[in-house]
Amino acid sequence: MTEACDLAAVEARRLIGTKKLSPVELLDSCLKRIERVNPRVNAVVAMCVDRAKAEAKAAEEAVMRGDALGVLHGLPLGVKDLEETEGLRTTYGSPIFKDHVPNRDERNVAACRAAGAIVLGKTNTPEFGAGANTTNKVYGPSRNPFDPARICGGSSGGSAVALATGMMPICTGSDTGGSLRIPAAFCGVVGFRTSPGLVPAERRPLGWTNLSVRGPMGRDTADAALLLAALSAFDARDPHSHPVDPASFRVPAPVDLSSLRVGYSVDFGGVAKIDKRLRETFARRIKHIAPVFKSCVELHPDMKDADECFEVIRAQNFLAGHLEKYRTKKDQLGPNVVANVEQGLQQSAEDVARAHARQTQIFRAYQGLYDKVDVMIYPTVSVPPFPVEQLFMDQIDGEKLRTYFHWLAPTYLITLTGNPAISIPCGLEPTGTPFHLQLVGPHQGDFRTLSIAHGLETHLQDDKETVRPVPDLKKLSV
Asked: Do the domain assignments include residue 113?
């Protein structure tokens, strides 16, 4: 029998609104699941149980009174530990902030609370989100729910694991080089990288760059859309923010798959290195789904010099955010942050100008693809999850990679374009963990991208080869 914590967020919210599920009951179910599973996977870190229980009781009373209810009313929420939470420890995965307790919620957390969500705890992340292996010196590593000996991805790894194991119905995340999409892919859930500004961020040190965005995670696209309905807004503190109707994201629109023109590429024309096993899996999946579309053609975007371009702009973000820490507390910083800062210090103004100019060229060329197709499909990740003790992947099929984050190419190449991108489950890869497709929509086409993903996801659930995999909780239980 399905426990309350295993309900999809959309269904749980519906049952709460119809007085068939108490927020208190749902919270209690989540707490029991956390107690049972979290010691094995280490996804949920700091918690505020007493406050959550009081808020769940108040949410129950509001339902019984017939009050107007927010889109997330009564749903327990996991907040990525890069986001500030009032009265709840926020470490950013860094020993420098191991005792940091903010006195306010940042905008996105406040927006979720205003929509009725109940913050239950923080989800683990690598130090300052650097790297796609969710491990840090404060809390240690989060583990893959399908194989705890391997990584869960990052940097929103704790959120992905919490969702996959039923510890939370919704979780927040953020994405620079793939931090929403990669952990979703390793854990069998959904991560949506939104267009810059759709989910405002008031704390980004370089507000004009498009690299870092906030976005929703859910067990499926409908759940991610529900959370996006609470997160999206206009906020003048974010230079990319623009007027938006948050309610428009609540339910994906029906999509006729047979009307879609689809483009695909396994490796962006050879720019991204992809493990042979995942190449073969992607080819089989494309062959499997191609007949349902109006057309499905191989297209390779122009990504020349994209690796160098991303490296430079990424390093500028780290300089802006962490140079002072590097100068005064370098001994407390991990190798990923140090490497990014030092890379930035070695760059010239010419390097920076060339990178931004090339990113603009990549963006403009990429938009031309949508004259030919409605959506592009790529693999989300380049390799299966590797041992949790291994900080990063330094080679693929025997070929050495250029940096510690080069294995993230399938996602960071899309980051450069600024296009909305979503990672959805599509069965298993050969080593036994989830395989995902990355769907990329047109510029500012977030709702359309969500809706296409929802339509394809629904189709995939009807086939045992492509259905969303679920971890074996019995093997994870303490």
From this structure: yes
